[in-house]
């Protein structure tokens, strides 16, 4: 467990290769693997905590279940309210979102099959209420104005990658699940053709791509 | 087990620092179109030796500076709720400026996240409030959707 080893581990992809050797053991197991009801329920503590200090209030959680040997299915749900006040915009949104997907355990801890790194994908949708109090009109020489739009209900859909890791907390049923969520916006309904600036569950949506992050405490039933 | 913990910690640290929002940029030419002005002398289009235009934008007056040997000019109009924009025109430093009021109705059109909205002007009317160097005004194309056609002719 020296430092050198740890760094080699982090920066080298050969890490996955070394785990591949352990594959044989898993394969034996694979044959006898049958789905048994198993659930892990997690809640994102990081974003919940951050909600106390910012305008972005994001609460999200997940339920995942091991479906096949290395494949887990996962459902994420959450609620977000947020404001966007920048570059002359003044907007607020709030709404719920749902994400469905699965992930594949890329590398597992031989001692506990729920520990390890995973990668996967999800389909996501958000249904929310938005209000644009100001959309800027850019003018010349200090002449500027804005246009306000009434509150409306919109929806957005995106695909999301899921890259993360899970680790058991000591010998308990609790796990820490940390994941990165690169998101790509596919479709959004628009009010008067206005590209939404923020979408609950997605984040800043003026560009098509955003990155999300979750730090969950999960309980395995 | 320990490796995993360390990597997860590293990942979380990296992610907390890496999320920065990009500012949206409004590329030029996508915003509100400007008014195109041309000049006439004795009914014929002409090139002016020198011209200076000031525009009152409500909050302040912007001096567009001296332009020499020009046959046309672009002037941005107001984008606020004012139904008109006042222009002041000078051709020599000593002469008093002429005041032209351009009145219009506006229409807001959404462009992009970076640009927000732009205004198009309709029912353009020009009125010479203070004739000095400018003798009269003529309206050209009476709407502004792009910067191609001339909207205002100034007769000297």
List keywords for this structure.
heterodimer; A: mainly beta; two-stranded antiparallel sheet; B: 156 residues; five-stranded mixed sheet; five-stranded antiparallel sheet; 49% strand
Description of the molecule:
The complex is a heterodimer of chains A (221) and B (156). Helix content of chain A is 15%, strand content 56%. The radius of gyration of chain A is 21 Å and the shape is elongated. Chain A has 4 helices and 11 strands, in the order H-H-H-E-H-E-E-E-E-E-E-E-E-E-E. In chain A, the strands form 2 sheets. Chain A has an 8-stranded antiparallel β-barrel with strand order 1-2-3-4-5-7-8-11. In chain A, strands 9-10 form a two-stranded antiparallel ribbon. Chain A has one domain: Beta Barrel (Porin). Chain A has 221 residues and is mainly beta. In chain A, a hairpin with a 4-residue loop joins strand 2 (57-66) and strand 3 (71-86). By secondary structure, chain B is mainly β. Chain B has one domain (33-155). Helices cover 11% and strands 49% of the residues of chain B. Chain B contains 1 helix and 10 strands. Chain B has one helix at residues 2-18; strands at residues 35-41, 44-45, 48-56, 61-70, 72-75, 84-90, 98-112, 116-130, 136-139, 152-155. In chain B, strands 1, 2, 5, 9 and 10 form a 5-stranded mixed beta sheet that branches. A 5-stranded antiparallel beta sheet of chain B has the order 4-3-6-7-8, with no helix packed on it. The longest helix of chain B is centred in the first third of the chain and has 17 residues, at 2-18. Chain B is elongated, with a radius of gyration of 24 Å. The termini of chain B are far apart. Residues 17-21 of chain B have low confidence and may be disordered. Classes of the chains: A mainly beta (221), B mainly beta (156). The interface between A and B is large, with 43 and 44 residues.
């Amino acid at each position: 467990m020296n430092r050198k080893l740890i760094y080699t581990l982090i920066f080298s992809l050969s890490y996955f290769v070394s785990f591949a050797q352990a594959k044989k053991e898993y394969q034996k197991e694979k044959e006898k693997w049958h789905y048994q009801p198993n659930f892990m329920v997690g809640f994102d503590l990081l974003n919940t905590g951050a909600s106390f200090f910012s305008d972005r209030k994001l609460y999200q959680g997940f339920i995942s279940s091991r479906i096949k040997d290395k494949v887990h299915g996962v459902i994420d749900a959450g609620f977000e309210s947020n404001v966007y006040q920048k570059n002359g915009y003044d907007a607020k949104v709030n709404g719920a979102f749902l994400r469905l997907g699965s992930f594949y355990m890329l590398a597992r801890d031989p001692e506990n099959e729920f520990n390890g790194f995973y990668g996967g994908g999800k389909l996501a949708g958000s249904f929310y209420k938005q209000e644009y109090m100001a959309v800027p009109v850019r003018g010349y020489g200090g002449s500027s104005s804005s246009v306000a739009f009434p509150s409306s209900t919109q929806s957005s859909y995106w695909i999301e990658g899921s890259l993360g890791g899970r680790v058991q907390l000591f010998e308990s049923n609790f796990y820490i699940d940390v994941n990165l969520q690169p998101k790509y916006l596919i479709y959004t309904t628009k009010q008067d053709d206005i590209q939404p600036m923020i979408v609950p569950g997605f984040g800043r949506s003026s560009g098509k791509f955003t990155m999300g992050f979750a730090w969950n405490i999960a309980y395995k039933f | 087990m320990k490796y995993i913990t360390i990597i997860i910690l590293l990942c979380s640290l990296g992610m907390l620092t890496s999320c920065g929002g990009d500012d949206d940029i409004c590329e030029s030419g996508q915003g509100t179109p400007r008014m195109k002005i041309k000049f006439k002398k004795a009914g014929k289009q002409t090139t002016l030796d020198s011209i200076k235009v000031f525009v009152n934008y409500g909050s302040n007056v912007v001096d567009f500076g001296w332009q020499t040997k020009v046959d046309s000019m672009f002037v941005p109009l107001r984008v606020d709720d004012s139904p008109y924009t006042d222009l002041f025109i000078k051709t020599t430093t000593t002469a008093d400026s002429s005041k032209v009021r351009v009145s219009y109705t506006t229409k807001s059109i959404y462009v992009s996240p970076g640009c927000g909205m732009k205004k198009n002007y309709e029912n353009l009317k020009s009125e010479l409030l203070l004739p000095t160097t400018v003798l009269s005004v003529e309206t050209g194309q009476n709407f502004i959707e792009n910067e191609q056609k001339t909207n205002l002719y100034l007769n000297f």
